[in-house]
Amino acid sequence: MSFVERPTLSQDEATGEHVWRRWLADEGCQERCVQEWIPPCARLVIVAPHPDDEILACGGLISAHAAQGGRVLSVAVTDGEDSHGESSPFNREELAEIRRSEQVLGLRRLGLSDPEVLALALRDGCVRPQSDVLLDRLMSLLQPGDVVVSTWENDGHPDHDTTGYMVNLASAATGCRFLAAPVWMWHWATPADVRVPWRRLRGMSLTPEDVSRKQAGLAAHQSQLVSRNFSLGAALDDAIVKRAAWPTEYYFV
Ligand SMILES: [Zn+2]
Q1: If you measure from the C-alpha of residue 176 to the centroid of ligand 1, how many angstroms do you get, rounded to a whole number?
Q2: Thinking of the domain 17-182+198-252, which architecture would CATH place it in?
Q3: Where are the chain's structural domains?
Q4: Res 228: pLDDT
Q5: What pTM value is reported for the model?
Q6: Which residues lie closer than 8 Å to 80 by C-beta, 6 or more apart?
Q7: Residue 123 C-alpha to ligand 1 middle, in angstroms?
Q8: What is the pLDDT of residue 2?
Q9: Distance 56 CA to ligand 1 centre (A)
């Protein structure tokens, strides 16, 4: 996550898991197991705007694909070096290094013994002005048959939105299947919110082992889980940490 964010509800107002899951079940949101999302022979490519988005978006899917012997490539669009704002005890280079280390550790905890991470090092919070660079890199690395996951293009954070939009374009142009994961949407939306294309939403059932590995992977991102300084709390609040324990991940298809 980056310093700029656009939730419209406070943490206390954000809709809770039981409300979401009951409503999604009533709406007939389909759930599929991992094998229906990605065959073991396919490469899973995660395009994360910031370190930790790969866990928040699809940590369970990464865990499940690793468990079935599948290959995973994680593309780090930025190093998340602006997550602590101007009053950080770390300078940008230090924070980037911390977050890159956390990202690798988190992926290891998902079951990848030697995580394959490609760092694009675009400036955190400024993906939109660098979207041509992002598109060029994606076009050169995506291969037909890849299953590609990134953030949803209307997630509510400028880096998430731009990344999702560009990954969608590149996936369509290269013959890849794209799954758009809502991360911040759960924070600002409410059930039946007209801004959200609910009919395109599908669920992926996670095993208890996948949920457990996802939580361990998120815990690797310590820089985002503790107060950043005397005036800024943790970048990842309790609501988003609780969402990482849901037994289902959701994607727009
Ligand atoms: Zn993010």
Answers
A1: 23
A2: 3-Layer(aba) Sandwich (3.40)
A3: 17-182+198-252
A4: 73
A5: 0.92
A6: 1, 2, 50, 51, 52, 95, 96, 99, 124
A7: 13
A8: 42
A9: 9
